[in-house]
Amino acid sequence: MQVTLEPLFEADFKAILSGDRLERWAGDYPSPVHRKGAEFGLVAPLSEPPWCHYQISIGASGLVVGDAGFHGPPTNEEVEIGYSVVPSARGRGIATAAVTALCKIALERVEVHQVTAMVKPSNLASQRVLARCGFSVEQQREGMLFYVLR
């Protein structure tokens, strides 16, 4: 499955929140999780690529099925990632491909020595994605599992 990460900009966040449907969006995109992320994206300072959020698109059609990205630029040689794929596109390796691409972006930079992600203990699918990408659980804190890739 060909997965492409396309940077999200202010206009994209506004489109996600507007309730309008764009042709390239999967039928269940954006989900409430994506809308919440878009709200945050408009409130928080937007990071420039590569440390931004991205829409995940698949195949030649460029169908948008989720988003993935960084929670800001690196701090103390560490960068945190997050990702979400809509239910209609799950189970096809899309999240794994997106996380792999984010890790490649991050770890090719001299200022990053580790990538982190936080996952709810109940989110077994996301835990499997991170394990497939080489992450390991470092600790549990604030009711979340804290994953690290070095």
Strand order, main sheet: write it out: 1-2-3-4-5-7-6
Oligomer: single chain
Largest sheet: 7 strands, mixed
The SSE string, one letter per element, is EHHEEEHEHEE
CATH fold-level label: Aminopeptidase
CATH class category label: Alpha Beta
Intertermini distance: 26 Å
Proportion of residues in β-strands: 25-35%
What best-fitting shape do the alpha-carbon axes yield? globular
Number of helices, where a helix is a run of at least 4 consecutive DSSP H or I residues: 4
The CATH architecture would be 3-Layer(aba) Sandwich
List segments where confidence is low: pLDDT < 50 over at least 5 consecutive residues. none
Helix fraction bin: 25-40%
Count of folded domains:
1
Q: Kindly state the number of beta strands.
A: 7
CATH superfamily heading: Gcn5-related N-acetyltransferase (GNAT)
Structural classification = alpha+beta
**Rounded Rg:** 15 Å
> Mean pLDDT, rounded to whole units?
94
